[in-house]
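Good morning C.,

I know you're traveling, so I'll keep this short. The sequence:
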Amino acid sequence: MLFWDYDNSSTPLFDGAIVNINGTVGHYRGILQITAESLCLTDLGMLDQEDMDSLVPSAPIDVDACGKYVISLADNLKTAGLHDICDYLFYKHWDCFSSIPAAKSVHHAFLHGLLMHTADMAVAAEAIITNNESYINRDLLIAGILLHDIGKILEFEISPVTGLVTGYTDKGNLLGHPVLGAMEIREAAETVGANPYLTMLLEHMILSHHGDPNAGAAKVPMTIEAELLHDLDKLDCRKQIYTNTLQGIQSSAYSAYVPALDHKVFQHGVTVPKGFNDSFSANVKNTTESFASFEGCDHEESRFCRSNDASFYNPQSEYRQSFCQANHPPAFINTEFPEM
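The tokens, ready to paste straight into the viewer:
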């Protein structure tokens, strides 16, 4: 929110603050604005969870079940080094990873946005990997998806009030999350003793996932997994931007200019007949069932299965270990890597 002619000394404001405003709402060049007569900081003690839910946007997912799916992807990696790197970093950062937005404003800029973004990319990747296993290393692509934005944990400044992104740390401004993510992967790899060549391939994916050096990539993608990671990331980001934009447009109307897309968006208003997508949905049925096969899951009610056992996210817990042994037996493949 931008303020004009406001003396911040009377009621000091800060990024992420929740404010009570009395004033008049009007339009300026098609944009809503408030002419404030008075404002004050909200007493957070007076807000209950329902109030916070109405003020702070959150991902439209079953958060706990989505987290369980992401964790199971890491546990199902058959390449030992990739499995151990993901396990190490999720154990280190899970609480933050599963709660923060994926961005400050452009895409998935709501609570649990990074978790949703990661899971949706993985679902799309599984559809691409199917029937293409001969030249796509599934473990490498999935590991890259799981960790491609891990550096955002160190890049973002998070409001302690709302949990939303309010700015960027010095490391975020000076290094950026691709570099920070690669540094986290190097630390994890050295800790768990992962193969150096395998680690380099994963680092390359993280450093190149923005695709273009002008967009923040340290290198352009030079492996098929790095290229697919970049494309899946861009696809999911733009899909979410369209989703957010379309919600505010009436049928047969255009949006205002969307900077992130560099054009307007048209709401065509053509509805999809019931059953129209059935033939396409059947192609990803196995993928859906692979992470929605837990007891109590209802496809009609939730995109993901539901679980409320927090001990699942601790890789050392008996529950987590028994689950992994029952659902994803550790069958690590023996892979030979070139000498570094």
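Safe travels,
E.
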